[in-house]
Fold NUDIX hydrolase.
Amino acid sequence: MINQNIKIAVDAIVFGYEKGTLYVLAIQQRFGKLADSWVLPGGFILDDEPLINAVERELKEEAGIAVNYLEQLGTFGDDVNRDDRFRVISVAYFALVNPKNFVLKADTDAKDAKWFPINEIPKLGFDHDDMVKLAHQRLKSKLTYQPIGFDLLDAEFLFSDLENLYCTILEQDIDRRNFRKKILSFGIVKETNKVVKIGASGRPGKLFSFDKHKYNQLLKENFQFDIRFA
Amino acid sequence: MINQNIKIAVDAIVFGYEKGTLYVLAIQQRFGKLADSWVLPGGFILDDEPLINAVERELKEEAGIAVNYLEQLGTFGDDVNRDDRFRVISVAYFALVNPKNFVLKADTDAKDAKWFPINEIPKLGFDHDDMVKLAHQRLKSKLTYQPIGFDLLDAEFLFSDLENLYCTILEQDIDRRNFRKKILSFGIVKETNKVVKIGASGRPGKLFSFDKHKYNQLLKENFQFDIRFA
DNA sequence: TCAAAAGTGTTCACCGTACACCCATGA
DNA sequence: TCATGGGTGTACGGTGAACACTTTTGA
């Protein structure tokens, strides 16, 4: 029979968004050679554990969170020395969460868990910088052809929140009128009858919500979500 | 230290195209429980072998081919019983090759290696049917936003070849004039001064070639390849 | 001269883009 | 009344879509 001496891990790049800033979740190691340094949440999988469950477990254990969106990003196994203890192949996952929904809670192996603005992430251990870079690209491109932005926002949000999210993540200006026109033309965002005002002044705005059911219906009819601007 | 009892394999979905038909490469097992049944080319990786090298090695060993295009497709490790001998996690790769460039040559573990038209693939072992399905979707969508079709054709090809490739893979009719106009507008396909005729009759056509260098240049200038039709 | 495949332009409709003013609220 | 953010419509140009005849070759 085959004999292999390779371990399998999962890691997650978890994005959060709040008030014009995109964040990534990192964990401070408690033990081992990399103690005190920052890495992505993740760890070794159990023998009878599906990959996806391993990610969800680690996110719960290391930071106390459950994500809104989770998909496989890619498997890192070409550099046989990416972990210098022994060979580890890591399956990286891409995740989105609304930071408001959780209070980070470092647990078990983790000394600390923290949101870092995407541009202020400390040097991460292993090849986790590469993973973040890849995930960031995926986020940017996916935002344009799949309605995943809503997984970063509250269930009910102002149009300006959605618009700022796109501006922030895509790093470009967007025309408010054209943006609203296009989003509404899809029919997957519906207006609630609630009105709120944020901050000290300004006209209150209507709250909107993402109609996931409608979106799934449209998908069956060959609908293609697509937000791109000059 | 961590103890895991999981093996890691790679598998490849290799697409070939010839005369209006899309093919997938499959291997007939020589040994083991699945002897005689068809599976995707692949196998266990070596302890000190990068994943990508493992795929290339297996393709050479099992079918005697070297591909034009290779990228990671995804990792299959949620079904812990996808291999009923013991737990195997497989990293699937997506590959393109011009079948004309090679004579398939089953080697070592393989009893036979064969091209199957995408619609006539026999039931494959493990979860390889799922892999083919996923790869097929990837091929279809990628064809529209990345110039990978050229990796399935000869270095020099007729415009009608390219057009038929798109028709075949995307399973839709394409207006010849609009297709040619759009492809040529990108400036990444250049006309050679060779003229050939295929078959017994009809006007001979000019040969064209893909200008990869030009494409890479354009990428730096934010060029976006995009072929979509009604 | 016929059959088969290559080559070629124009028109129209729609959508993406640019652009600026009024409204509601609290201080 | 002022500052702040919310809400709205139109005109133009470019691009995708539809569409048919001529050319070159071998039989």
